[in-house]
Amino acid sequence: MKTPLTGILPVAPTPFFDDGTVDHDGMRRVIDCMIDQGVDAICILANYSEQFLLSDEERLALMRVSLEHAGGRVPVIVTISHFSTDVVVARARAAQAMGAAMVMMMPPYHGVGLVPAEEGVFEHFKAVSDAITIPIMVQDAPLSGCQMSVPLLVRMARELEQVSYFKMEMPFAADKLAALIEAGGADILGPFDGEEAVTLLADLDAGCTGTMTSALLPEHIRPIVIDYRAGDTDAALAQWTRCLPLINHENRQCGLRASKTVMKAGGVIRSDHVRHPLKPLSPRTRDRLLQLAEELDLIALRWGK
Question: Which residue positions form the known binding site for pyruvate?
């Protein structure tokens, strides 16, 4: 990439048939829908893609289908997180070979009782940085249980050639983003927020240059980032306020099921199935989700009709 990625880089859901098998044609339709939503890039195989419920074979096939179908229309970011350093290196090389523009990875973790020391985390990212020539986005999220300090993140940005993007989605993310940007300076090429944009305004105030949300409403969230970075903070606040009921409902009630439910209702995918032990939305939560989606006239809700 010749210029840094900014804007909105949403996570693509992984569509399944009702029997739980992967729907590759549905994956292609998801990619097409997201491009029509006006996204700046697409992230695949992330936690919101149910990556932890995919076999290695399914993961490889989905990566190939997604990258081939995107066909360079937008950059594709491939999530490669795994506890094993050998596995993330192999995943990173495969992603680059297939045409990924970037990889994203969490620190190695396997429950709160099995988290490496900081030097182990650094070496984990270093192994990937040494193996590829595309950027790495560091995902700093509570899910890992691994506390990465600002000094560690800055060291990674300065000493590891490919580490230049950061997705910050822990509590009080804005404070950590501000500290990271101040300490890291020009080495922090892409400070991003996550968490479905529920803290986006605070994170923009702190200096983030983009957001990685779900695929639910990127066409409505992207203008918040664009307006804010253009200096129109009033317009950004007004748009964020307009979106906040749906953002909050997704973040607090639906999780990764929201975009799948709306995409099924909009004819993008045939099923909103989530793999066990995840459970489908309750009718109560689903009804409120679709009501809020209709009020914003989401592209995903009418794309396939």
Answer: 212
